[in-house]
Amino acid sequence: MINILVVTHGKMAEGIIHSAKMFTSEADNVEFLCLMEDMGQDELSDLMNEKMKGLSNEEQFLIFCDIIGGTPFKISSKFSFNNDNVSVFYGVNLPILVHAILTRDGKCLSSLTSELVEVSHDSLGLSDI
Amino acid sequence: MNITVFRIDERLIHGQIVTAWIAYANANRIIVADDKAANDEFQKTLLQMATPKTIELQILGMDETIRTIKEDTSDTKTLLLVRGPKEALQMIEGGLDLKEINVGNINMKKGKTKILGNLWIDDEDIRNLNKIHEVGVALEVRTVPNERSQDVIKLISK
């Protein structure tokens, strides 16, 4: 199963996982990290190292972060640069996260991520009403 | 070159820069003055990815930055980023005529004392910040533009 890690500025990661569970119930291998105001890049990197520890080469990791260019994005990208089994998806929102948790079974990382890009187009818009 | 914002930020380009400071500086260009980043292909790729497509990015070594800014007589509005107080002082001592520095993030590290959530300093930082202040450059702390500005020297001399 693809492991999911959500990393954001502030407590959004914790909050969005809490919200996602209203749709998915308890989900295995879904974790979060929050970059708080007084944390440095190195500290976030250490925390992420801790989360990745013991990860075998066969296991796949999908990291969701909030905005492109942000510190969570930069640290995550370093992990994905050094490891083919890690992908980074930026611009996470609730529909995308829920979709990933519910449909990841039996999929490889690249097919899940390209599916998520599709889903993301439909997840933002203006109501017609 | 018109340096509209000169900022100390250990994270260089990141979320606060992309969402708030580029607009505040009205910048068309970002210069990252950092020897480490200038010599690291992976860092350069990351910083380029972090920069909006409409903004020109230059990642230069310290000396090269000073040379480039001195030689550029255009009016291009530029956001100048350095990693820490030491590098900021280097810019000033290199002869750049900059009047104000925005102190963004100087993060927690072993041996540093917390001044504010985003401002952790050690003796070396204090020395460098004081030297910058002594030559008449104003130092303010603000992580994002609409935050209240605070005087760095007042904060660190408490």
TrEMBL record, chain A:
Annotated signal peptide: none
Keywords: Cytoplasm, Kinase, Phosphotransferase system, Sugar transport, Transferase, Transport
UniProt-listed InterPro entries: Bacterial_PTS_sugar_comp, PTS_EIIA_man-typ, PTS_EIIA_man-typ_sf, PTS_IIA_man
Localization (cell): Cytoplasm
Domain PTS EIIA type-4 residue range list: 1-124
SUPFAM superfamilies documented for this protein: PTS system fructose IIA component-like (SSF53062)
The keyword Transport appears for this protein: yes
Keyword Cytoplasm: yes
Protein name: PTS sugar transporter subunit IIA
Taxonomic source organism: Lysinibacillus agricola
TrEMBL record, chain B:
SUPFAM superfamilies hit by this protein: PTS IIb component (SSF52728)
Signal sequence segment: none
Stored InterPro entries: PTS_IIB_sorbose-sp, PTS_IIB_sorbose-sp_sf
UniProt KW keywords: Cytoplasm, Kinase, Phosphotransferase system, Sugar transport, Transferase, Transport
Principal cellular location given in the protein's record: cytoplasm
Span of domain PTS EIIB type-4: 1-158
Keyword Flavoprotein: no
Pfam families referenced in this protein's UniProt entry, alphabetically: PTSIIB_sorb
Localization annotation: Cytoplasm
Protein name: PTS sugar transporter subunit IIB
UniProt organism field: Lysinibacillus agricola
Lineage per the UniProt record: Bacteria, Bacillati, Bacillota, Bacilli, Bacillales
